[in-house]
Each structure stands twice: as structure tokens, then as C-alpha cells.
Known about the structure:
The complex is a heterotrimer of chains A (308), B (384) and C (326).
Chain A: H1 3-34, H2 41-59, H3 62-83, H4 93-115, E1 131-135, E2 138-141, H5 142-164, H6 166-176, H7 178-183, H8 188-210, H9 220-235, H10 240-266, H11 271-296
Antiparallel strand pairs in A: 1-2
Helix pairs in contact in A: 1-5, 1-6, 1-8, 1-9, 1-10, 2-3, 2-4, 2-8, 2-9, 3-8, 5-6, 9-10, 9-11, 10-11
Chain B: H1 2-12, E1 23-29, H2 36-52, E2 56-57, E3 60-68, H3 73-85, E4 90-93, H4 97-109, E5 113-116, E6 133-135, H5 140-154, E7 158-164, H6 167-179, E8 183-190, H7 198-206, E9 211-214, H8 219-230, E10 238-241, H9 250-253, E11 261-264, H10 273-286, H11 292-310, H12 318-327, E12 338-339, E13 345-356, E14 362-374
Helix pairs in contact in B: 2-11, 3-4, 5-6, 11-12
Chain C: H1 4-8, H2 16-38, H3 41-67, H4 76-91, H5 97-119, H6 124-143, E1 154-155, H7 171-194, H8 196-206, H9 208-213, H10 218-244, E2 246-247, H11 254-267, H12 274-292, H13 297-310, H14 314-323
Antiparallel strand pairs in C: 1-2
Helix pairs in contact in C: 2-3, 2-7, 3-7, 3-10, 3-11, 3-12, 4-5, 4-6, 4-10, 5-10, 7-10, 8-10, 11-12, 11-14
Amino acid sequence: MSTTLLLIQLLNGLQLGVILFLIAAGLTLVFGVMGFINLAHGVQYMLGAYLAVYLYGLTGSFLAALVLALPLALLLGLVLEFLVFRHLYDRDHLSQVLATFGVILFLNQLMKVLFGPASLSVPPPAFLDFSFVLVDGLLYPAYRVALIAAGLLVALGLWLVITRTRVGMLIRAGATNPDMVSALGVNVRRLFLIVFGFGAMLAGFAGVMAAPLYSVEPGMGDNLLIVAFVVIIIGGAGSIRGAFVAALLVGLVDTLGRTLVTDGLRLIMDPSSANQIGPAIASMLIYVLMALVLFWRPEGLFAPKVAR
Amino acid sequence: MKKLGTTLAAGLLGLGTAASAEIEVGMIVTLSGPPAALGQQAVDGFQLALDDLDGKLGGEEATLIVEDDELKPEVALSKANGMVQEEVDFVVGTIFSNMLQAIFKPVIESETFLISPNAGPSTFAGRNCNPHFFVTSYQNNQNAEVMGAHAQEAGYGKVFLIAPNYQAGRDNLEGFRMHYEGEIVDEVYVPLGHQDYSAEIARIATSEADAVFAFTPGGMGVRFVRQFRDAGLADRVQFMSVFTTDETTLPAQKEAAEGFIAAGNWAPDAENEASQSFVAAFEEKYGYVPGGYAMQAYDAAMLIDSAVAAVEGDLSDKDAVRAALEAADFTSLRGDFAFNTNHYPTQNFYQLDVEQREDGQWATAMGDLVFENYGDSFAEECSM
Amino acid sequence: MTDQTDIQAPVAATPRAPLIVAGVLFAALALIPLLAEIWGGAWLTSLAVRAMILAIVAISLDLLMGQGGMVSFGHSAFVAIGAYACGIMVTEGVYEMALILPVAIAAAALFALISGAICLRTSGVSFIMITLAFGQMIYFALGSLAQYGADDGLTLWSGPDFLGTRWLSSDMGVYVTVFAVLLGTWALVHRITGARFGRVLRAARQNPTRVASMGYSVFRYRLTAYVIAGVIAAVAGVLWATHAAFISPSLGAWQRSGDLIVMVVLGGMATRNGALIGALFFILIEETLSSITHDWRLIFGPLLVLIALFARGGLVGLLDRVRGPK
């Protein structure tokens, strides 16, 4: 495998990792602080992408769509929270799984009804619509680099908020011991709302950023959601740092794994079979990784020390 | 399900279900996801034919039931089962070969005639050819064989192959190899519906290929062509393809596909009269340029029309219907049309160019005739 | 109360109402082929067969969820294993069910032992996620089987034979077989729940430490239940392949596992007939809604939310509430 290919796959792996992080960050906070399994988090991502499509159609500008989509994604997330999720915080995990599964079914179908089943796309903003030379004769699109940069910036910002602000401190405390936090007079419900809203916005942001790259179609969030859960299991529920490291790890393992395994198999079998078996084995890699982590360190790599 | 309701209602009201002369055609095509445009073309093409025939097939009133297979084998199967239960007279489908393979058994076993307006896998062209199965499009390998022949003639010494990993993908790449004698530098398969080609493009760039042959239909083609052009490869690697730069993808690809070549059995600027009026009527009714998918579906409707007319509306004698279908006594938009022994067509194939028309739309245009009355390579193994 | 005496005491006389309900359901299922002669035809029997097969799987899942408190989000993988065991053997020319069934059972038992041993070291959300992970692994593994159709699925051009006869090639034969397996599964799980095995499982669900301190290996009881449930689901998978004559990896997708969980909860978890009712009702809703509109999930989704919020006891719970306190 050439170094160019390796470099490309590394960048692609980072790109996937960044998107996974944006989705997993909200998920890990919600799960860590509120103990709430939100299977419907993937639809937040999908809503962000569809908002991008819709707003781009209205304004003709990707940046305008991005700026408008974020508060709308937040609003939609809060609506969902109000209607469905807040009634589930005290319930057992099974009820949460069931209800959020129902939300997924409903919203996927709604997108199909509103926008049609065909996949849509959004062009990247004009100022990023170029490619720069990676290697002689091969260009890599600037937009993808911008996505990686944006994701890393958000990660940095999030880390600063969590570690340097009062709200962040409360969130960290809530992840460790919600009852104590409540006993100390903090309005836990309001904290939950902030955490939830923030997570929804992050996922929506990921959706908007992904719209120019991936197909925007109903159900686009479902498979990413499963991988996001793998990320937070590996990283440790409630830990942003864990989500970040795990997301990049999973993104790289998945992307590089696919290429390496498929190429390896091509040495011993025909290309068509290699291309069927290779990705399948590669897909299993991240689950194997998760199983190993669960075995060796069940709370995750960076889990906050829970005192419940 | 709906027919069930009417049957029940009729039964309750004491009315017998009279043997109606109505011809029911069930159409199963892909209408969701990135390849939705292909299925839509087929539906529109077939419907236009019905309109031209005043809503009748062979002089009998006809109804068209359209179902979406969602590019999922289980969904296609359940839709096909539903149509078989409702005892449709013809099943027209599918776009994708893997969908066809999913529905083949229940439709054929119920002795319903299955007419494919697009999918033409090698699976049913040879030993497993079937008396109830007809194809109005082509056999999957053929277009690729044409491209391979052209590549050989044009002198491209090293070619890179890429296709999705399913039957049609394999058929196409195998087809390319038939007449091409140069070097295949690499053969890459991607998942059906693959979107991010940066890895594959990196491979192409670092190989020494002077041409690439791609079969990446529908949305795959849109993305691959754009990314190929964005990566700056279009200038030094000739892009050759089948079903990748066609009327379903060119509206999105536009100038990104400029200078690319393809192979096929027809283009909208074909000069025969039937085709010209078809294209004009289609564009007026639907507002977009018809491609091969629409053309082949139109031909499928005309084929059924000719067969029903030949048996004078009486579909009970399956052998007579089969013979009428085999006769293919209708005016195809391609000019002459005939079936080979395996019920796949023999027809002319051309090299096609991507061009911008005078009205600004992008479409394919007829290039050189490469093969005349070309049959597929599997017909010999068919014992029909 | 998880008292030592509770586990060892024989179960009290079975209340009659659930048995009557079960009797009615089974009688109705038995009569469907006759009804189909007048109305519905092959569509109705096919629908009923599908519902019954899913009911078999749902009952096995209820053994895990209702009795054992193990919410498995990867249970459909076992169905897929069974279906593919049948499909692969038929494709390779082995048509005898008497050979296919043991292979399917062995494959499922092996997978259940290995995955169960790993999954059962976790609990709660981790258990849910890791069963999901194993389910996905099977899904991807089946999708990699290039010579058996991979993602495109596999058509069974010929159905399996039963003891040399073509019994399973007739609609009636399949119907009777599936009905018998359903009845047998229902009775078997009924016996297991009433026996000590079931009592230990239920006790462990509520207070594992206590049960362990009484000398029972919670892990071994749970693993046994996991294997039993997996094997039952695989048998259902073999029946599915026989009936549908077409299988694809999506049989083992996580969405199918989600559907199964819905069926169990919808009917009423840990009740005698909940899983059976849930599966039948689920198929019924799916069919009726999808004939009204293609977008039936718009109705079904919120329905699930409402069930999760207000009717966690499921349909059986609703029935109980309607009948009032005893």
C-alpha cells in the first residue's frame, strides 16, 4: 500500500473520528450525567443534515445554512426532550430503549415523507470548494480538512467549557454523583436540559458538516449511532476526553482497517471476494475492540470515577 | 392487499369476480435512495408508453401498479410475493440485478411473465435461462464488452477497473476483459452505494493507468465523477464507463463529465423517428432528458402491447403468450429489435460521448457503431 | 421476596386465565388454514406462519428478558444463524431436515456459549451494548459470505425434505410444523419458568448477590438460559428459511432485534402469553398499518413511545387492569 493511500486513509479516518466525536460527545454526557440511553441521538445528526439541505435551499449559502441550522437543531432537540425524553429519565433502561426506538422510526419516516426517499446533498461553501495538492497529481478537498479542523476546534472548546467553567464543573459533578449535586441545591433538571440541548446541537452540527460529504437520506444516523455507542463504551460514559480519544481511535481503526484487511485478503483471493470479506472483517474490528475494552476495563478507558 | 379488499367486498355483495379483460402489470423498481432516479425513469418511460397507447395494452384496459424495492432484497421479495398473490399478468422489474435475483423464484414459479427493463445478469442468460423471463435492455456484460473493444481500438495500454461488488458489477468488469487485450493494472470493488472514493482515486493516481473503466451507476456515478475531476485526474486518465455518465447522473455531473466516454445501446439523439418523438414527448411531459432506463421501459410496454394484441387479450394460453413475446413484433426506439434464444436482446451497440446540448442540458450522444446485432456470450449455454 | 423457601417451594397452582387465553389463541391459529379457504388464501396463511415464527423467537427472548432480566439487543443474530445454516446446507445439496436442524442447533449453541460467556460478565447498559455488538458481528459475518449471496441474500431454490418426504414443501406441511414448534416452545418455556430453574433466574434478576450467597451460580444459570433461548431462536430461523425460501443478513440486523424487544414488551414481559400476544399483535399492526399507508411507521413510532411511557405491562398488563384487581 502506497504512502499516498496511507495518508489519504489517515485523513479519512480522522474525518470519520471527528464526526463520531461530535455525535458521541453529546451522547456520553447525556448517558453519563443523566443515565439516559438515547437511541434517538442519531436522528439529531440526521435532523442537522436535513436542516442544512432545507436552509441551503432557502438561502443559497452553506454558511447561512450552518448558522441557522444550529439553533434550529437545538430547538428540535429541546422539543423532543420536552415531549418524550424527560419522562424517561427515571425509567429503567428498557423503557428508554423502547421509547427512543419509537422516536427513530417516527423521525426517519417523517424525513421520508417531507423530503422524499431519494438522497440529497448540499454543495460545500464556495471558499472551501477547492482542493490542494497532497502529492504530485493527487488533490485532497479542502472541505474535508476544514471539517477535521472544525471538529478539533469544537473538541478544544468543549474541553475548555467542561474543565474551566462553572457549568462544566457541574456537569462533571453530575456525571460522578447526581444525587449529591442535587442535594447541594443545584437545579438538576435545568442542568440536564443544558446538557441535553448542547448534545443535540453538537450532533446537529455534525449533521450539517457531513451533508456535503455523505448522502442525506432517511436513516442516515442509525448506523453511526451504533458506532457512537461503541465509542462511548470504549471511552467511558460521561467522559469527553474518553469520547475524543475513542472516537479518533474507532475512526482510524475502521478506515485503515478496511484498506489493510481488504488489501491483505487480495493477496490470497480474487478481488471480488476480498472486497466482500474484507470490509466485513474490518467492520467487526471495532466491535472486537469494544469487547476487549469491556473485558479488561468495563467502565471504559477514561471513565470518571463514579461514586454512586 | 387492495385487490383482496375488492374481492372481499365483491364476495360479500354476492357478486362474482368476473373474468375481467383488464391487464395488470406490476412494476418493481428502485425508487429510494441514490438510485431512485433510475427507477423513476423506468416508471415514467412505461407510463408514457401507456399514455401513447391510450391506457391500453394490446387493446385491453391496463393498470400499472408500481412498487419500490428500496434496493433491499427482502423488500423486493415481499413486493413480488404481493404481486403474485394478486395474480398480476406481467411483472416488470427490476433495475438492479441483485433485486432481480431476489424476486426471480416466486414470480417464475407462479408462471407469471417477468420482463426486465434493465437488469440483465449473466445468471439467467445461460444455463438458467427461463421461458417466463424476458429482458428488454441488454445482458450486463455487453456494454462493458463494447467499451473494452473500443479501449482496445483506441490504444489504451493500461486500464484501471472499478465497479460495485454485486453480480452486475462483476459481470461488467468481466465483460470489459473480453475484447480488451492490454494490461489491467488493478481491479477494485466497492460496496453498492459507496460514496467516498478518495481511497480508490488515490489508487488510480498512483497506478500507471492511462484510462479507467468504471461501472458506478446512479448516485455512485455522480460522486465518483465529481471526486475524480476534483482530484485533477481527468486530464491525464481517460474516463471510460457504462451507466456512470448517463441521463440520470449528467444533470448533477454537468461539466465534471466533459470529455468522458461511455458505451451503450442508445442515446437520446438517436436518429430514428420513433426515438425522436419519444424524446420530445418525454421531455415535454416530464421535464427532463430520458436515458436508457426510460427507453427500455417504454420498449417493455410496447413489447407487452404487441404480445397481448397477438393473443387478442386472452392470456390463458401461456405458450401462445410466450411465442408472442418471443416474436417481439413491435417498433423499438432502437430501430430493429429481436430476442436471442435466451430471451435477451440482440441489438446494436455504440460508443457514446458526453455532450452539452444546445439547450444547455448535458446528455450522451451517439458515437461510432461498435457492434451490430450483437448477442451476448451466454446464449449458447441456454437450451431453450 | 427472594427467600430460600421461595426458590425451593413448588409453584402454586397455575392460574386459569392465562391458560384460557393461550387456548383461545392456539385454537384461532389452528383454524386459520380453514378460514383461508374462504378468505385471504395463501396470503393469510403466509402471514400467520410469519407471525408464529416470530412468536417462537419472542417467547425465547422473554425467557431472557422477562425471567432473567437480560435485555439482549442481539437476539435476532440467532435467527439469522439458523436461517443461514439451513440455507447454506440446502445450497450445498443437503436437503434433509434431520441433518439441517442439528447443525443449526449446534451452531447456535456454540455462538451462544462463546458470546454469552463474554456478555454475561457485564450487566445493565453494557450488557445491552455488548449483545448488540455480537449481533452486529454476525450480521457483518453473514454479509461477507460471498458464495452465499453476501448482502444480496440467498434464494433457497428447493426447500428442505423432512425424513425423506416433501412434507415441508407444501404450505400445509409448513403450517403444521410451525404450529407444532410454537406450541412446543410455549409449553417448554412454561415448564422452565415453573421449575426451579425459572425461580432461580427470576430471583437472580432481582437480587443476584443473595441468590449467589445461597450457593447458586448465577452465571451458569444465566448462561444456560442464554443458550436455550439462542437455540430456540435458531430453530425458528430454520423454519423461516424453509417458509420464505429467501434469506439475507438483514435477518440479524439490530433493527430486527429491536423489533423483537418491542414484541416482548408490547405483549407483556414475563407473563405466560405476553410474548405470543406481542408477536401476533406486532405483525397484525404492521400488516394493517402498511396496507393503509406506506408511512405506517409515523403511527407505529409514537405508539411505541406511548407503550413505553404508559403501558409497560404490555397488552397483558392492560387486560389485567381492565379485568380489575383480583
